[in-house]
Amino acid sequence: MALVGLNGSGKSTLIKLLLRLYDPDSGVIRINGTDIREYRLSDLRANFSVYFQDMRNYCFSLRDNLTIADNGRENVDEAAVAALNDSHCGDILRKAGNGLDTSLTRFFDPDGIELSGGQHQKLALARAFFRRHTALILDEPSSNLDPRAEHEIFQSLQTLTQGKMTIFTSHRLSNVFLADRILVLEKGKIVEDGTQEDLLKNKQRYAELFRYQQEKYLLRKEPELKSHANSLD
Ligand SMILES: Nc1ncnc2c1ncn2[C@@H]1O[C@H](COP(=O)(O)OP(=O)(O)OP(=O)(O)O)[C@@H](O)[C@H]1O
Ligand SMILES: [Mg+2]
After folding, report:
1. Is residue 5 within 6 Å of ligand 1 at its C-beta?
2. pLDDT tens readout for residues 40-99
3. What domain count does the chain have?
4. Is 12's C-beta closer than 6 angstroms to any atom of ligand 1?
5. Atom 24, ligand 1: which residue's CA is nearest?
6. Distance in Å, CA 9 to ligand 1 centroid
7. Which residues contact 230 (CB under 8 A, 6 or more apart)?
């Protein structure tokens, strides 16, 4: 499921409410018919692995940057490398002279590695993949990624999320094709709900947002650019 909407429409808030970082002032959130306040908090949260929009990594080893999300895993190193591969962190692993023991940042270790914004994002995604879950939540998982990295992450998600509930937000609507269902939020309310096809047919909010991005790619006003783009392999 994709959550879509303008800045401040309530997407991240909805995710935080689902995880009970806040409780709603009014209304009820139910999972399998039960008010989420009736589940033990640890049981509720154990089901979710979350990539938060304002993610942070830690001045720990690469391994600990993953295990901090789930310290009960067996075959930790194997699982850590798998998670790093799933989030296409090959460049980070290559840079890391000391493998999973390599420190992140040089704050506490002169041999530590420093990462770019996009690399930080991919490492934080690896942490979300590492944590065992029944539902995966990704809040703007590709906001700092270059076009190839974004493409690769969403390709990975197609296989990683097979048969698993996944909720994600993305302002780049070209990613939203992955979702079976799209919710459009506006001022904290769901104003549209359907498949991409339904919402494009509706010609309401989603279609408007889609059009803004689509127009950029259609290159209608630059016929010369269009012919260059067409000639690319
Ligand atoms: N902790 C908070 N306390 C009070 N208001 C908040 C808090 N966090 C966010 N808000 C407000 O709630 C509204 C919704 O914010 P939210 O972060 O859910 O938006 P969003 O849809 O995720 O936007 P974006 O696309 O920018 O990530 C905004 O008006 C924001 O200022
Ligand atoms: Mg947000």
Report:
1. yes
2. 999 999 999 999 999 999 999 999 999 999 999 999 999 999 999 999 998 899 989 999
3. 2
4. yes
5. 7
6. 7
7. none
